C-alpha cells in the first residue's frame, strides 16, 4: 500500500513537472521576472521563506566540498546551452541576412512558377511592360526606378584552398540598380561602366574567393573581366559580383532576355496596384512579390532545418544533462542526509528543505546557462560562414547570437535544473529522520 | 574474465547512481550515432567505390551552363571511355511547389551506367519503349503513392514546353530499388527520356546538363578526363571533367562543413560526458576504499585492482554506449519511414559502430584512469583504518 501511494505521488510529480516545463517554455520574460520577484519577496518576508533562505545558505556553504560533482551540473548545462544557442544563432544569422536583403517597397518580378531567379526568363518586351506598370516609382528625370537583372553562376577558387572551386553568383544589373538598393555602398574603387567587362564585388564574396581584389583580372564565360570596385551591403548581395546586365547577358549568350526585374514602388501600399497591373495584363505571365517575402521564402527551408536540428540535438543533450544533475543532487542530498535530518528533528518543515535543494540546483544551472551562453557569444557572434543558397551559389552570412537566443538558452538551463533538482529535493524532504540520524 | 561478476557487482553497488550515469551515456551516444550517420550520408556520394569508376563532365564555367549534345559521340570515341551517357536537371515539382522531385532527363545509356539502380528487366524494356515513360525510386513512389501504370503531371520549375505549358505528363513504367552502395537520395529520383524532354522543350534544344562516362580502368581517370576536356578547349563550351567522387565532394563542401559542425557538437557532448562519468567513477572508488583494501589484503595485486577499476569504467561506458547506438540505429529507419522519406536518416554503418565502440573504450579508460590509480596506490593499513 505504501509503495503504491509513493508510486502515485511520483507519477503526480512527473505530470506536474511536464505541465510546469511546458508552461515555462512558452512563458515570456516578463513572467519569469515576476516569478523571480515573487520568490525573492517570499524568501525575505515570509517566515517559511526566511527559514528556506537559511537552509539554502547552509547548503551553499558546503558547495566547496562538492566542487567536482557540482561542476558536472554547471559544465553539463553549459554544453547544452552552448550547442543549442550556436545552432540557433546559425539559423538566425542566415535568416536575418536574407531578410535584410528584402524590403516592403521593392518588388521582384519572375516568370510565373519560377521560385528562384535562376529558373526564370523574361523577354525584352516583358521588361518594358513591367517597368512602365502602375505603382513603380520614378526618379527626378521621370525614368522608372527598375532594374532588369541577369543571374549567372560561376566557378571560382576559394581563398581558403585554391584547389576547391565554389559557386559564386554574378548579377548583371541595370543602371537603376544603385538607386534601387541605396544600402549598397562602394568602399573601394569605382562602379563598373556599362558596356565594359567590369565587375564590382561584394565584400563577402571578396573574403570567400581568391583573386577578387580591385584591379585583378578574372576569366568568366571565356572572357577576361576586371574587378574595379568593392561594395558592402550587409545583406545577401554581399556574396555577389555585379556587372552590367547587357555585358553579362552577352557573355553568357542570353541574348536580350533577362531573369528578373526588381522595381522600386512608390510606397509599400502600391504593391497591390503593381501586382494587379501585372496579373491583369494578358501579355504577361509573371509572378510578383515584394523582395521581403521573396528573400524570406529563400531562407525558410534552411532556417527550419537548422531550428529542428538544434532542437533535436538540444533535447537529447538536455536529457543527458538532466540525469547528470539528478546524479549530482542525489549524491549531495545523501552526503547532507544527517544535516537535513537534524533540521527536520528541530522542527523545520519539509517546504524549506525542498525549496533550498531546488534553489541550489537552479543556481548551478543558471551558472551553467550563463557560462554556455557567454562562451558561444564570444566564439560565434559574428562568425562568418557560407552555404549554398537558392540560386545554386554561395551565400555568406554571419552567426547572430541575439539577446533573445541567450534568454532562450537560460530558460533551457533553468528547466534542466528544475527537473534535475526536484526529485532529489523530494527525497531530501522524505528522508526518515531517525534512520538518517543513525546512519554514519 | 573470471573477475566479471566481481566487476559487475561493484558497478551496480549503487543502482541509482549507475543507472542515472548510464542514461546520460545513452543520450551522448544516441546523439553520436545520429549525427555521425547524417555526416556519412552527406559524404556518401564521395566515398562510394562505384563513384570512382565514373567521370562527370560539366561546363567549366558553371553548373548551370548547358553543353551541346553533339559532344557525346566525340567523348565516346576517346580510348578509356567504355560508356557515355548524359542527363539534364529537370527541377520537377509534383502538385505543389513544395513537393520537390529530384528528376532528370536521361539518355538511354544512363541507367546502364548506374548498376546501383536495380530495375526489373521487364520494366526496363517498358521504359525504353515508352516515349513519355518514367522510372522512379521506391521511396519516392511510396511518398506520393505512385504505382506502375500511373500517369502523373510533373511540373518543371525551369522548363516550359513549346506550347507554354509547364506540366509534363509522364507514365510511370517502373519502380526501382537501389543497392546498398548507392549515393544517398538515389532512391528518391525520377528518370525520364531526354528525347521526350528535348522534343517538347521550348528553349535550349540539343543541349545537355552533364555527361557521365564509365572508365574501363579507374587508374586512367586523370588522363581520360584531360582528353575529354581537350575536345572543347578554347570553344565557347569548355568542359571540366572529374571523377564522380570529386564532383560530389565539391558539391557537399559547398553546402557547408557538416563534418566540422558534427565534430564541434560531439566535442562538447563528450567533454561533458567525461566529466560526468569521471565523477561517478571517482565517487564509486572513494566509497569502496575499504573494500579495495580488503581485496588487497586477501592477496589481489595492485595491478589487478587497477585493472578491475579500469574494466569497471569501460564496462559502464560500453553498456550505456551500446544501448545508445542501438537506439540510434532503431530510430533512424523509424524517422525515415515516419516522414515518408522526407528526412533520410540511414541506419548506422559499420564505421560508425566501430568508431563508437572505440570512443567508449577510450572514454572509459580516460575516466577510469585517476580512480584506478588511486585504488592501486592504496595503502592497506591507512585504508582499513579509514584515514
Automatic annotation (TrEMBL), chain B:
Keywords of the record: Cell membrane, Membrane, Transmembrane, Transmembrane helix
Record's bilayer topology term: Multi-pass membrane protein
Pfam families documented for this protein: FtsX (PF02687), MacB_PCD (PF12704)
Name of the protein this chain belongs to: ABC transporter permease
Lineage summary: Bacteria, Pseudomonadati, Pseudomonadota, Gammaproteobacteria, Lysobacterales
Residue stretches making up the ABC3 transporter permease C-terminal domain: 265-380
GO annotation, cellular component aspect: plasma membrane
Protein location: Cell membrane
Membrane-spanning residues: 258-278, 305-331, 351-373
Chief location: membrane
Organism: Oleiagrimonas citrea
Amino acid at each position: 500500500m505504501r509503495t503504491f501511494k509513493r508510486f502515485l505521488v511520483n507519477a503526480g510529480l512527473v505530470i506536474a513537472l511536464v505541465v510546469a516545463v511546458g508552461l515555462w517554455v512558452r512563458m515570456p520574460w516578463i513572467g519569469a521576472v515576476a516569478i523571480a520577484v515573487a520568490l525573492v519577496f517570499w524568501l525575505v518576508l515570509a517566515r517559511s521563506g526566511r527559514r528556506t533562505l537559511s537552509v539554502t545558505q547552509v547548503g551553499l556553504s558546503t558547495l566547496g566540498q562538492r566542487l567536482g560533482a557540482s561542476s558536472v551540473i554547471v559544465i553539463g548545462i553549459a554544453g547544452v546551452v552552448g550547442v543549442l544557442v550556436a545552432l540557433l544563432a546559425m539559423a538566425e544569422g542566415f535568416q536575418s541576412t536574407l531578410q535584410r536583403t528584402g524590403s516592403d517597397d521593392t518588388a521582384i518580378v519572375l516568370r510565373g512558377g519560377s521560385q528562384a531567379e535562376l529558373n526564370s526568363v523574361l523577354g525584352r518586351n516583358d521588361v518594358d511592360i513591367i517597368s512602365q506598370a502602375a505603382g513603380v516609382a520614378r526618379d527626378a528625370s521621370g525614368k522608372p526606378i527598375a532594374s532588369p537583372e541577369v543571374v549567372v553562376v560561376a566557378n571560382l577558387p576559394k581563398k581558403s584552398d585554391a584547389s576547391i572551386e565554389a559557386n559564386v553568383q554574378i548579377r548583371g544589373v541595370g543602371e537603376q540598380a544603385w538607386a534601387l538598393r541605396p544600402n549598397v555602398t562602394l568602399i573601394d574603387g569605382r562602379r563598373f561602366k556599362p558596356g565594359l567587362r567590369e565587375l564590382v564585388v561584394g565584400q563577402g564574396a571578396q573574403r570567400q574567393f581568391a583573386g577578387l581584389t580591385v584591379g585583378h583580372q578574372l576569366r568568366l564565360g571565356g572572357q577576361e573581366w576586371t574587378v574595379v570596385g568593392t561594395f558592402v551591403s550587409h545583406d545577401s548581395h554581399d556574396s555577389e559580383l555585379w556587372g552590367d546586365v547587357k555585358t553579362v547577358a552577352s557573355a553568357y549568350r542570353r541574348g536580350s532576355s533577362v531573369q528578373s526585374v526588381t522595381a522600386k514602388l512608390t510606397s509599400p501600399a502600391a504593391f497591390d496596384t503593381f501586382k494587379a497591373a501585372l496579373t491583369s495584363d494578358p501579355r504577361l505571365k509573371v509572378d510578383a512579390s515584394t523582395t521581403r517575402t521573396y528573400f524570406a521564402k529563400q531562407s525558410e527551408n534552411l532556417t527550419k532545418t537548422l531550428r529542428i536540428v538544434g532542437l533535436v540535438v538540444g533535447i537529447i543533450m538536455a536529457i543527458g544533462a538532466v540525469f547528470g544533475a539528478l546524479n549530482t543532487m542525489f549524491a549531495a542530498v545523501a552526503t547532507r542526509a544527517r544535516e537535513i535530518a537534524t533540521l527536520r528533528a528541530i522542527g523545520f518543515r519539509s517546504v524549506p528543505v525542498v525549496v533550498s535543494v531546488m534553489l541550489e540546483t537552479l543556481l548551478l544551472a543558471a551558472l551553467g546557462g550563463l557560462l554556455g551562453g557567454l562562451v558561444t557569444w564570444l566564439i560565434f557572434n559574428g562568425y562568418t560562414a557560407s552555404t549554398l543558397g537558392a540560386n545554386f551559389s554561395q551565400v555568406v552570412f554571419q552567426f547572430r547570437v541575439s539577446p533573445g537566443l541567450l534568454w532562450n538558452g537560460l530558460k533551457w538551463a533553468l528547466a534542466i535544473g528544475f527537473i534535475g533538482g526536484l526529485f532529489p529535493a523530494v527525497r531530501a524532504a522524505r528522508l526518515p529522520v531517525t534512520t538518517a540520524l543513525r546512519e554514519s | 574474465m573470471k573477475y566479471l561478476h566481481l566487476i559487475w557487482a561493484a558497478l551496480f553497488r549503487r543502482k541509482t547512481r549507475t543507472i542515472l550515469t548510464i542514461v546520460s551515456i545513452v543520450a551522448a551516444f544516441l546523439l553520436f550515432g545520429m549525427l555521425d550517420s547524417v555526416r556519412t550520408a552527406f559524404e556518401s556520394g564521395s566515398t562510394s567505390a562505384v563513384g570512382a569508376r565514373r567521370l562527370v563532365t560539366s561546363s567549366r564555367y558553371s553548373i548551370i551552363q548547358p553543353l551541346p549534345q553533339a559532344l557525346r559521340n566525340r567523348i565516346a570515341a576517346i580510348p578509356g571511355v567504355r560508356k557515355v551517357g548524359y542527363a539534364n536537371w529537370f527541377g520537377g515539382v509534383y502538385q505543389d511547389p513544395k513537393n520537390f522531385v529530384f528528376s532528370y532527363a536521361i539518355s538511354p545509356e544512363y541507367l546502364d551506367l548506374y548498376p546501383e539502380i536495380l530495375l526489373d528487366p521487364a520494366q526496363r524494356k517498358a521504359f525504353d519503349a515508352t516515349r513519355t515513360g518514367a522510372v522512379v525510386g521506391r521511396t519516392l513512389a511510396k511518398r506520393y503513392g505512385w504505382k506502375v501504370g500511373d500517369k502523373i503531371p510533373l511540373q518543371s520549375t525551369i522548363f516550359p514546353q513549346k506550347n507554354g505549358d509547364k506540366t509534363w505528363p509522364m507514365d510511370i513504367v517502373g519502380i526501382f530499388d537501389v543497392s546498398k552502395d548507392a549515393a544517398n537520395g538515389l532512391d528518391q529520383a525520377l528518370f525520364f527520356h531526354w528525347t521526350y524532354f528535348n522534343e517538347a522543350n521550348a528553349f535550349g534544344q540539343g543541349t545537355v546538363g552533364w555527361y557521365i562516362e564509365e572508365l574501363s580502368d579507374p587508374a586512367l581517370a586523370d588522363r581520360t578526363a584531360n582528353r575529354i576536356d581537350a575536345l572543347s578547349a578554347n570553344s565557347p563550351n569548355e568542359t571540366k571533367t572529374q571523377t564522380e567522387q570529386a564532383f560530389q565532394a565539391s558539391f557537399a563542401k559547398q553546402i557547408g562543413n557538416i563534418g566540422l559542425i558534427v565534430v564541434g557538437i560531439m566535442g562538447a557532448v563528450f567533454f561533458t560526458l567525461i566529466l560526468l562519468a569521471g565523477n561517478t567513477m571517482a565517487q564509486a572508488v572513494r566509497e569502496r576504499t575499504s573494500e579495495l583494501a580488503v581485496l588487497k589484503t586477501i592477496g589481489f595485486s595492485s595491478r589487478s585492482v587497477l585493472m578491475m577499476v579500469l574494466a569497471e569504467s569501460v564496462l559502464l561506458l560500453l553498456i550505456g554506449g551500446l544501448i545508445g547506438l542501438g537506439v540510434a540505429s532503431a530510430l533512424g529507419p523509424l524517422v525515415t519511414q515516419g516522414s515518408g522519406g522526407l528526412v533520410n536518416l540511414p541506419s548506422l554503418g559499420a564505421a560508425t559502430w566501430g568508431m563508437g565502440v572505440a570512443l567508449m573504450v577510450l572514454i572509459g579508460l580516460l575516466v577510469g584512469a585517476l580512480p584506478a590509480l588511486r585504488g592501486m596506490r592504496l595503502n592497506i593499513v591507512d585504508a582499513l583504518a579509514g584515514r
